[in-house]
Description:
Elements: E1 2-4, E2 11-15, E3 17-18, E4 24-25, E5 31-33, E6 39-46, E7 56-63, E8 71-76, E9 83-90, E10 94-101, E11 106-116, E12 146-147, H1 158-165, E13 171-175, E14 177-178, E15 182-183, E16 188-190, E17 196-203, E18 212-220, E19 226-236, E20 243-250, E21 254-262, E22 267-276
Parallel strand pairs: 1-11, 5-11, 16-22
Antiparallel strand pairs: 1-12, 2-6, 3-4, 6-9, 7-8, 7-10, 10-11, 13-17, 14-15, 17-20, 18-19, 18-21, 21-22
Amino acid sequence: MLITNNVCAQEIIFCEGNTERGEPRGELKDEWKLSKEGTKVHMLYNNGKTTINYAKLYVLIEEKEPKENPEKLTITVNRQNNWAAIDYTFKKAGEYMISIFGIDNNILASKKIMITGPGAQVTETMKIERIETSLKLPGQKKEVEEEKAATRGMNFSKEEVAKVHTYDGSKLSFGQGFDEKLVKPSNQFALGKSGVYVAMLLENPNPLNTSTVTIDVWKKNSEGKYIEHVGAKEVKVKSDKKAADFHYSFTKPGEYKVSIFSGDFTWICSDYLTIYGE
């Protein structure tokens, strides 16, 4: 079944391109005129402040008059920004529904686009020129509704769906050290002359099923957005264990978002901490 995620911050924008920060460029419109060579449309997906917590994304292109098999593309996600962009060349006039969704059929965004004028009878396979995405804020309230999977023609293996749910209920905690358990757990730390060492404990209901995890750190800017990338650190963990401890050193005061990814870049969880100056 498909699940619709109704989050207003998540949207698809049809435009001519985007900046390095994921801002749309050129004319923004939902109706495009078909040219002889086909009409290339830049589809910019803005995920707001949420994370796409999937190793892969899927893009579905459906005509108003449904085909037997709608076009579907698999995308390996590079989660470093909160947006994703693709180029697609339409070669047939008509009304289309564009949907972006995850491996568990959770629709992140959908939007209609109209291509006007005569044209060829086939569409070109989607060509990806750029796709970049970022991290999920935890605790987001979701409203979902179910639809029949047959209406979209999507099929996922049990292994793909199981991978997504491996990290359901995972938790990241911070402290001043680790001695069988976190020492003085906190989300606030004082910066010393040489920085501050923050211990981290990752806990998961299931075995971690990965031999490494990546600690990905982002700093909040003056606009309240976590878009300044501080760094990433890969550490070894025991795949058969449900918990792992590691540390990260901070050298500047500020508010930070810390996200943990598995070895294949599946998002596990995120949490926040504050580093105070001397």
